Amino acid sequence: MIFPYFGGTPTSMPNFALVVQILSATVVMAILLWAILTINRSSDSYPKRKPPIQITDLPSMTIVLPTWNESKVIEGKLKDIRSQEYPDELLEIIVIDSSSNDETVPLAKEWISSEGSGDGRQYRIIEEETRSGKSVSINRAFEEAREQSTILMMSDADCRLSDGTLLEIAKFFQDEEIGAVTGRQILLNSDQSIKTQQEGSYRDFFTKMRVAESNIHSTPIFHGECAAYRRSAISNHKLVENSNADDSQMAVSAVRSGFRSVYEPSIEFFEMAPPNGRSSRIQKVRRAQGLVRHFWRNRDLALSRNSPIRGIMALEFCLHIIMPIFVTIGFLSGIIHLGSIANIIELNFGGIQKLPTADLVMVFLDILVVILISSGILGLPIPGSRLSYTFFIYMLTIMRAISMIIAGKSLHIWDQVPSVRDELSHHDSREQA
Fold first, then answer.
1. pLDDT digit string, tens, across residues 248-281
2. Residue 164, CA distances (Å) to 183, 296, 347, 374, 381 in order
3. What is the pLDDT of residues 3-33, one digit of tens each?
């Protein structure tokens, strides 16, 4: 909306676009400041919990590998699990396949027959007749896991675990307060392109958030590539099967059962970042939609005084629902405001220095944002540009996810990112060479 100026001076009517932009910027900055203060305060106020050095009794564990058309990486994944140090008799591996139409299942069967039959571990393959989504697969696999398994773990076929991951996870479950544990993602191709570098910047910020939340009590966001759960902590909860964010759903379920769900940086897993824009969008929109639904469905934990993660859930609700809306509104109102400024200068034949102070401040901020985002797009070495661009794109991604939810389009049956599988397959080949 552009309000006209007359006689070289503005009318008393306020510039609505400017007011909206200032309000939006205030809300966004307040949420970001809240997040930064949470990160800084938690590192000082809450001692980091150390796992016990000695393990008296290792728990029996079931690892679930959900697959759909993973022929390029399934053998590498099974080799990855086999390389983990853990007593054979305490480990069960379930491959649950969502009706693949490639060679995933034959390759898995062949590998188990030739490579896995002699190691003493239990391998099972569950073949689903139809593809109904990952959450459906996880619900079934966890239900059918052998009774003696007190730890249920999930790990994606397109990730690789660091050495000693299973033993490190077992250490944390020695603490009876812990109901769920997830680890830290390390990108194998972080320097491959501008897009993968941006992914690394995004991950760095949210890694600090996960650590801070875990120090306070629990983090409500987990990595399904490497996530383990105490069976008793999630036994009374089932995944919402058309909602995604299955890993984070179970993390919050563990909290509702009276346990803690923690992120531990010493537990590491490796995967490929999407190498191009299209691949990144496919992956991010799906994940964003799952998290938006996740925080909306669990909004009661942000409001209840009895919630042990009230502040954490309130902050994440703001980061994933409130802030994207205000970023979008602020961006659009900023464009309108700049248009109104151009109109004012043209009508009054005056310079920008004659504008009111509020207009001048917002014009300066608009220009700064444009410079930072443009520099991030071009990969220019300007401090803060990469993070600014990544943040802006992520906000737009969440808004796209919210729009799809409103329109009734669900991504719980996901589009696979073939380029990620290709990159990982090449990595596996190089490792074996």
1. 999 999 999 999 999 999 899 999 877 666 667 7
2. 12, 36, 70, 42, 37
3. 443 333 444 334 788 889 899 999 999 999 9
Write out the two tokens for 54: 């000695």
Nearest to 161 by CA among 184, 138, 189, 192: 184
Query: How many CA atoms lie less than 13 Å away from 265 in the CB half-sphere?
Result: 13
How far is residue 113's CA from residue 119's CA, in Å, rounded to a whole number? 11
Provide the whole-model pTM: 0.87
Q: How large is the average pLDDT for residues 371-385?
A: 83
Residue 9 tokens read as: 């001076």
Radius of gyration over every alpha carbon of the chain, rounded to an integer in angstroms: 25
From the number of C-beta atoms within 10 Å of its C-beta (0-12, 13-18, 19+), residue 190 rates as middle
How far apart (Å, rounded) are the C-alpha atoms in residues 323 and 19?
A: 17
Distances (CA, A) of 85 to 82, 153, 348, 425: 8, 15, 76, 23
